[in-house]
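Predicting structure from sequence has reshaped protein science. With that in mind, we have picked out one protein's residues alongside their backbone shape tokens:
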Amino acid sequence: IDQKLFGLVQGVAAIIGAVLLLKLLDDLPRHWVARVLLVLSVALVAGAFLEVIGVLRPISDSFREVAFPETLFYESDERDVTITGFPRPKFFTAEPSYLAIGFFAFINSWLILTYSKKSLFVACSLTVLMFVLTGSPVIVISLIVSLVIAQFSESDFTSLAFIGVLACVVGLGLASTQPQVFTSFLERVGESYQYLGTSIPTSENLRLVFPYLTLVDVLRVSPFFGVGVTGKELIERYSSLPVDPSAALGNNALASIFIYLGLVGSLLFIKFTLDYWRRARVGRIALLVVLVLALSQTMGGPETLKFWGYVSLFAGVVKKSSVP
């Protein structure tokens, strides 16, 4: 009960924070928000590059040792070398994936606010560079989202053809700029199924496989209302995976919502969220849903301020982009 109560308070506080952030974004000038998002995106790429070449790594590591508890401190440099050929940058975050998620949120929010073919080219170029630096699957999702934003923003055939050509060019760029990163990513995705029956979870399984398998296990027993908000301690009662309960829950916000709330609770919660966005006069709800669904595949913690902060950022920029 105490854990569920804490999770409920945490979730309510996160949603209240998201509402306040949306109101703040609504009051800020559009060009100012776009400028800040671009600066943040470039800063993350530049910081990642400086860390890779060794300039910022000692400072970043020292900060992480102080800021993050031992359970969150990322130390997988040997694994990183097999992915990118060098220890992946964290840039003052707990692990490389958090850096990638921040970039994904900032660059695509900027693209929504300032969409043009030039902006799309800049966003894709920065995305390719960040993929080379981090080798993160999150960056691949970010690239796909950028192209989806372009599809929502264009209507004529010539523009759509341009987007298709750009997608091919970017894909070739991913494969040629640093082949080791691209081939390592494909190998990790292709071999993830080999670890389903073992206690060795891969990052791909933690995000895209384990959460949905656990969701099926939970819905078989408690289909209507799941295990309750932040019912992490109950996962081991339901999961059939041979892994720790936290690994079985994984890092997928969409699956976690259905695990926590079940089918009835989740659908009601989604309905209330969509109704709120409509009352807040957020246009292009379909685009916003795509953004949130993509974000939810990259991170867990649907009760955390971090998750709802990114969701609110997307809602804010989509709303601003609908206003001339």
Remarks:
- The mean pLDDT is 85.
